[in-house]
Amino acid sequence: MPHTTPSLAPLTALTTAKLEWHDDQPHAVDFDDVYFSREDGRRETEHVFIQHNQLPQRFAQWQESRPFVIAETGFGSGLNALCAWQAFAQHATAQARLHMVSVERYPMTREQLEQALKGWPEFSELAQALVAQWPQPVVGIHRLTLTPRFTLDLYFGEASERLGQLDGQVDAWFLDGFAPAKNPEMWQPALFEAMARVSHTHTTFATFTAAGVVKRGLAAAGFVWQKAAGFGRKRDMLHGHLATPAADQRRAATPWFAGARPTARRGDHIAVIGAGIAGCATAAALAARGYRVTLLDPAGIAQGASGNDQAALYIKLAVASNLQSRFYLAALLHLRRLLARIAPAADWWEGCGTLDVALDHRQAERQQRFLANHALPDTIVRGVSAAEASHLAGSDLSHSHGALFYPLGGWLAPRSFCLRLIEDANIEHQALGVNAMQQSDDGWQLSLSDGTRLNANQVVVCAAWASQQLAPLEQLPLMPIRGQVSCVDISEAPITPLRCTVCANGYAPPPYRGQQLFGATFTPRSLDTTPCQADADYNLTELTTALPQLAAELNVQAADKASARVGIRTATPDKSPFAGALPDFEQWRSLYADLQKDAKRINPASGPRLDGLWVNVGHGSRGMVSAPLCAELIAAQISGEPAPMELALVDHLDPGRRVIRELITAERKSCQSSPADK
User: Fold this and answer.
1) Is residue 255 part of a domain?
2) Are 28 and 178 in contact (CB under 8 A)?
3) N or C: which end of the chain has fewer CB within 10 A?
4) CA neighbor of 563 nearest in space, from 504, 516, 621, 512
């Protein structure tokens, strides 16, 4: 598939800030520069960024349904973000929301950040939330919900590359960072071009510097600047606005991904079909933004594939970094922040880590190649020997060839998680199915299983395999996968409990509420939900191979001790979920039909979507990790917010991708056919 999204930086750990402390203020050793004015950092932020972007006035006048978006080119200690929120809370209406995007190439450690923020006791409550959610020092986009009305996206990495991956629009810029003379690598034309790409004609900027390279770069990118008196000992600063919007190169090259979508109105009614993990996470993300949500599922909350007593927090990253791996890692990091924020002390989840065990030389060699290709922090993944794996698991793994250990893995109870997610007055659950959907003048009309009709402004379908029963979703290429798990009651026969979740060809988490769960089978294209002995035998065989000590202690050969449960998972052809606005399939096939003749022949028309119809489906066996981040993406798109992930990942998850891929695949097959065939 043609892909013109700017290439992603390698997935790697970042070098954290090297600091010296002068009178309790951080000083960057490598740049020989301060993070903020020694005279008064807060007053400098207010003078340069708050006042010269006219933020108090603009906040007071903000009536948009979407949040006001500020982007910043150097997060540093977070002082600018704290000051921006204080000004917003003081001047904006009670319904308004603030969204901040901030780039940082050399993030502080959690301990450094906490020390730096101690100098601002007036921000202590928000600072505590920031420190508590502080992400791992790895390239990526990390979304933090600091208050119900203030979202902070930390873009860890090089500024122009990161901003090239911003999917959203910016209203004001804090053009910050170390001085151009100290950090010339950042103040390059690519930075200003990236700023212009996501700005509009009312977008303003302010910066502490008046260096020539900055003035020339801004002007070349279409910004108009003017000088103003600087703060303290700085004579001049710059501020201005975008006068000439940048051409949308992405729309010209991949128009099927580029169309802007109308923002939902405050108070809109949104129906979410399916109350599994994907549906509950989607309902929660929408309700948090103030929408009225009706959650529809005749089976109740967290049944079907989401109904197992425990789910593993598990990802398997590719040997060579790809978009799918980057998405799943981002999803795991997002889920862990979400759990720590909404249920820090709950007994229904445990961040005990996950072991991906290598049971043969081939698997071990793959893991070693993965480690060689990924310089990720040990706090995300590290290789361990068989002896260390045994210690981490609390069970004998000496027969293995080592493992990868994911410290942020673990397990959770899906039903308890879902019930916690939908504890919101804006969410109403109705135990009803949807027989049909029809577009109406103001959204969609749903025909329900009790014979009534429900009108909604927008609809998000999260019904896994059942989604295909609803037109026009029957055109999504989805595949059912039967999975059976086994469970043994250990309440009267204690075992040596696992200390972490162990994955090989199946998985086994630590015991929960007197039960030891293990499994699961993987049977494509089967919809049979009746437990069978063959699958129970398979689960036992895999458990015995991976965890022989646990299998022996369970003595699961006694049939009366084991139970089973079957769920139907749903996968996509490329094993990544579908998350986003549903395309008008027939119009896409017509608009982009020339791709069947030439994969570079692109109709510049934007591929039409079915207004107000969204999907969050196709999560396969890792939906526990992937569904919440997909839910956040859909809620952000509905709300007109920046996406919680890189532009390349938004494209990767788009449900229209299969239409384009099928057209291009047809063209390639045609080219490969022989002259006689033609």
Assistant:
1) no
2) yes
3) C
4) 516
